[in-house]
Design a protein that fits this description.
Chains A, B: Its cofactor is pyridoxal 5'-phosphate. The structure is a homodimer. By secondary structure, the first copy, chain A, is an alpha/beta fold. Chain A has helices at 6-9, 14-17, 47-58, 60-63, 73-83, 95-107, 124-131, 173-182, 236-246, 256-267, 269-292, 314-323, 347-361; strands at 34-36, 90-93, 114-117, 135-138, 158-161, 188-191, 212-217, 230-234, 296-297, 304-308, 326-328, 340-343.
């Protein structure tokens, strides 16, 4: 894009001139790269997803021309059934990024600052700036763990990614309950984008805590990153705030294909569990292989690992991997600029990474 | 939904407690209703749309698990080709409602108020409240026309639906140029959701005016309401503001099915033109039939008409039509509460409406 002159800038809203947007992981358009950089699932979605979209197409004359259900009721019900809750506890959105954006607007525009860790999902500061949310950033400890006691101060809300990203480290439910109980007047959001790969979900706490919002996505554990379906689970008085925000922004965020495909995914629990287990098994093997080569790998409950090499610059390592056709995510930021975030691939893909390191880069 | 207590309300952001969300037209879940209430197209989308989604499905293992292109470059290029402009002038979003939301944030959060008519798309006041945009509402004249001279006062932006909704009346390009020239320091947005049914598009003015944003949708003229694809066309320094806003809210709003299907629609210009002409022809016939029965019908350039009966309450008429299986849109609002907005159906559907009025309700 060519440079925008200050004269042209007069058309922008003043606050928009200051925005520092989120930068998503690279989606390369070249083929044959081993893409371990955006935490996608190496396996396809349930075959029932394809069947469900086929069924929409067979009826396309009648449905594509018509607006979708603005409430996506079928999808809310499918999620509710799978999560063993009532559909009145479910909110859906165009990817969990949209759900999180609505969460920031619905709950966090407060006098007091929102609390979150220094190392976490890098969209949180972006949402905060976008909606004018005050923030107080709390450092993880030296082992990259969340310090629960830090979350017992005055605040206008709390958001914790669990397992955290990009660290991959999970917090137990007792720690989350401690945060919930210490903040009875604040909304506590647990962002569980990666929870299905071995961490404990806080959905089981929703009935007990009127201040809890759990956010999840179909992008990782359900292999539907290409579809854009995220959701939140909370008591109805919190869901109502999300609906008020959504209906002040976009009435129909979920298209007919997304609704049908996601419903089919939630209906196929056996496939879901099997694929998650495959990723977990592959992760444990990869962690062992990398540890054996001297890499430091943080304890992961996610579909990625966060790893470093004591005697090699992480940025250089990422560049050398890329030269060999393997993309991983490198964050050139304080505290984590000597780590790489590596998505778990299939066993064959992970072996290619291990072999490239062992026989080539570190040989 | 059960009532929310004031104690539960403490969790909501204070500004969200005050929101008055948009209420979309009813999407009834019962069958066999003649649905003339949400301005959907009576014809299916291009057969190439179905083929394009089929092609995605055939490759689903490789694509659904992967994030879509966050820039939706293929879609921007398809729109640019069809509109005969450069792709750098195109912004895409999850329905034109999302595009309009981003427009309000990107350009209209200003010291001066945004100008728009008293009778227009009822989402504009909702966006204004949501983003804290000041507004100054300018009445249409007694013939429900926009008074161009009113749009020559200090403002922080202007938005005009053209053809206007729910009035169906179009403004000519010379009037729009007058507004653009009178406001060289404000962004002027022309919301052309219905432009393809006989009005003149301002896209031809984008190269000439650095303050013009044109917004369109695939929901009406391309029969893709079920898909959620809208777009804006403007010079790159304005597109950049929309991208900054979008990337501060949701990086990947367009899913892989939506991108593929919309590209196929824009590639099939012949089908598009033929379907639009069919709707226009049906509209002219319906207007003549209703006028012959004594209804007052405003001059329409849209895929709907705005009509009233001199001796019958419009709200009652809507209710009586509904009892007979025909849904139209009734707005119980000042100035327009004696009009009905009626979507143009197929000739057969329109005849059913005419017959029901002639032989039954008005018999």
């Amino acid at each position: 894009m060519s440079k925008i002159t200050s004269e042209q800038m007069r058309f922008w809203s003043p606050e928009v001139r200051e925005l520092e947007p989120y930068v998503p992981g690279e989606q390369p358009k070249i083929q044959n790269l081993l893409k371990l950089n955006t935490n996608e699932n190496p396996y396809p979605p349930s075959p029932k997803v394809v069947e469900a979209v086929q069924a929409v197409l067979e009826n396309s004359a009648d449905v594509l021309r018509l607006y979708p259900d603005p409430d996506a009721s079928l999808l809310k019900q499918a999620i509710a059934t799978q999560q063993n809750i009532d559909a009145s506890h479910v909110f859906v959105g165009n990817g969990s990024d949209e759900v999180l954006a609505h969460i920031f607007k619905a709950f966090f525009v407060q006098e007091q600052p929102v609390l979150y860790p220094d190392i976490t999902y890098s969209f949180y500061p972006v949402y905060s700036q976008f909606f004018g949310v005050k923030t107080k950033i709390l450092p993880l400890n030296d082992d990259f763990e969340i310090v629960v006691n830090d979350y017992k101060q005055a605040n206008g809300g709390i958001i914790i990614t669990n397992p955290n990203a990009p660290t991959s480290i999970a917090l137990g439910l007792s720690a989350i309950e401690e945060v919930l109980q210490s903040n009875p007047d604040s909304v506590v959001v647990i962002d569980e984008a990666y929870v299905d790969f071995g961490a404990e979900s806080a959905v089981s706490l929703v009935a007990k805590y009127e201040n809890l919002v759990v956010c999840q996505t179909t992008s990782k554990s359900r292999s539907l990153a290409g579809l854009r379906v995220g959701f939140a689970i909370a008591q109805p008085h919190l869901i109502a705030a999300l609906e008020a925000v959504k209906n002040s922004f976009n009435s129909y965020p979920m298209d007919r294909f997304a609704i049908a495909a996601a419903v089919a995914s939630f209906d196929d629990q056996a496939y879901f569990e099997a694929q998650c287990q495959k990723v977990i098994d592959s992760r444990e093997k990869l962690v062992a292989d990398l540890a054996a080569m001297g890499l430091k790998v943080l304890p992961s409950k996610a579909n990625f690992i966060f790893a470093s090499l004591p005697h090699k610059d992480a940025g250089e390592l990422a560049a050398e991997l890329r030269q060999r056709g393997i993309i991983v995510r490198y964050f050139n930021k304080p505290r984590i600029n000597q780590y790489l975030r590596i998505t778990i691939g299939t066993d064959e893909q992970n072996q290619r990474l291990v072999d490239t390191l062992k026989n080539d880069i570190l040989a």
